Each structure stands twice: as C-alpha cells, then as structure tokens.
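Table 4 source record.
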Amino acid sequence: MRSKITPLVVGIGLSIAGCADIVPTISIDPPVESNSPELIEEATAFGDWQLPADARVLRVRSENLRDPNFRLAIETSPDGLSWMLDKSRYSEPLEKGMPVHPEKIIAGPPLATSPSVKVSQDLFVSQEGDSMIRAVVVDERTPELRIVHLQFRGQ
C-alpha cells in the first residue's frame, strides 16, 4: 500500500510546484505594539470606542492578518468603565469568567492574580460599516481600579 501513496504525494507536489506562479499571495504587515496617540486613535476609531477622561492606555497592539485586529489594555475607575461601555454602545452583560486565551493579554498584571475577572463580547457594525467582534475582559483589581482588556476583531 505504501507504494501506491508515494506516487500520489509526488504527483500532488509536482502539480502544486507547477502552478506556483499563479497562486495569489497576501502581504501581511508585522504586528505593531505601542501606546502612541496615533495607534490609540486608529484602534478606538475602528471599534467605535470611547475612552473616559480618567483612562490611562497601557498598550495597544495592531495586527492585520486578513482583517484588522486591535487589542488595548486600559486602566480606569469603575465609573470610567460604566461610562466607556455606555458611550461605546456596548450593552452585553459582563459575566464572571476568564478569557479563552488569557496569555494574549498585552499589558497589566496576570489575570490569574485578580480577585475578580469579568468577560463579554458583542457583534458590532461600526459607523464606517466594519463588522467585528468586540471582546471585553475586566480585571477588577481593586475597588477603585479596573484594568480593561479590549479586542476588536474584524470579520
């Protein structure tokens, strides 16, 4: 049986090699990570997201694979969190839990050390017509501090 599989594999390999010049390629920019005002503006504009006056942006990460993908880490107060969710038209309830990939948090202390973590996500279409998933992870670090991890994944 092994001798029958080998010619098939070789044939497929030769077919692919012969068509290599007509296969479209996708140019992928490397991820960008900073807390520059320009990157903050790009990320929040994409997600139609509003930052409260007391917000401190810890880090922003931009990846453009097939669709835009932004991650932000923000420190704010409980009132700032409520304001931010309301002004960003985010109405999904936050529920106790951990994100599926906590290792993808880009700034702040590890979520495993938090006394309380809440998560949620919504499907959203921005004013520009961009369809996305907006994921929110809230680290309730202290009674006065919320570390908010956002992800805006284009669809």
